Amino acid sequence: MVPANRPISQRERGAALLTVLLLVAVIAVLAATALEKLRLSTRLAANMIAIDQARGYAMAAETLAMTRIDSLLGRDAARVTLAGGWSGKPFQLPVPGGLATATVTDGGNCFNLNSLVIESGPNSYIPRPAAIAQFAKLMVLIGLPTQTSAGIAAASADWIDTDSTPLPDGAEDGQYDGGQTAYRTANTLVSDISELRAIAGVTPQIYAKLRPWVCAQPVAEPSRINVNTLLPEQAPLFAMLAPDRLTVDAARAMLLERPAQGYTSTEAFWKLPALKGVIVFPQEQAQTAVTTKWFALHIEVELGGTELTQSALIDATARPARLVSRAWGDPA
């Protein structure tokens, strides 16, 4: 039995001190970790609140844009032109602590990837040869090699159609099964143009080149190009309608000569003297219009240190115009 009044040795005192110091160090580390987690949680919560606010302001800008589209169509539902400078002109919506900017453009002046197929039944799609040829021609007109263009056009149709037989130069499941990351074709309509990146033959460089020219409308129908709103720099979209019969330069020249008030009908447009020697078939003429069914909307919100980007597609077939798709962030 150790006497109660035994003196504590220097060694015991040192051990006790080390134990206390170790406990203090452990508690300090735990406290620092807890504090850092608290700081991170606070920052994440603040970011989420800011993002939610930014999305709310983006939706407000979205509503304002649709109101403006309804107003545009209300002036003349039978004809949409560039009068008034609405296309591509940003309009700003001041919001508390920031700014929302919205830009509206004609969302039908593009090649609809979903036109590469025909809906043959419920959730059943077969290739549309005419659209495949047009897509291949568009790619050639913007500078891609002919063979590459033909392969991408066929592979894109195979990506959407519901059969398992590849088109000539196309690609079905077998093409994608053997890759480092195996996957299958979608076998349904494209929901976003970023799906192109998964299609055989589409490199990042080709995708970047195609992005301004294509769209993904939620219907398996060819886009109807509005001859009143198509910009001269978009002439390849017009030239692709008459492959090897209408050059990009000729199409651009016609768009530059367009009257400010536009054309009253597609018949008036196709009777222009400049088109007299160009053979254009009825199905090709049917892909033009003087009004707009789809509008594209791009919104940017800056709120303090938070930035938010939204893109949307608006259906203006009937009034009031309605939103059919919305995506956050720029497509990669």
Q: What would the keywords be for this entry?
A:
single chain; 332 residues; alpha+beta; Pantoate--beta-alanine Ligase, Chain: A,domain 2; Ribonucleotide Reductase Protein R1, domain 1; 2 domains; 5-stranded antiparallel β-sheet; two-stranded parallel ribbon; 9 helices; 11 strands; 39% helix
What does this entry look like structurally?
The protein is an alpha+beta fold. It has 9 helices and 11 strands. The protein has 2 domains: 44-107 and 293-328, Pantoate--beta-alanine Ligase, Chain: A,domain 2; 111-221 and 231-260 and 271-286, Orthogonal Bundle (Ribonucleotide Reductase Protein R1, domain 1), CATH 1.10.40.60. A 5-stranded antiparallel beta sheet has the order 1-2-9-10-11, with helices on one face. Strand 10 and strand 11 form a beta hairpin. The radius of gyration is 30 Å and the shape is elongated. The N and C termini lie far apart (78 Å). The mean pLDDT is 89.
Present the secondary structure layout.
Blueprint: H1 10-75, E1 91-95, E2 98-106, E3 111-112, E4 117-121, E5 124-127, H2 129-141, H3 146-160, H4 173-177, H5 204-210, E6 214-215, E7 225-226, H6 235-239, H7 248-256, H8 266-270, H9 282-285, E8 288-289, E9 294-303, E10 306-315, E11 322-328
Helix pairs in contact: 2-3
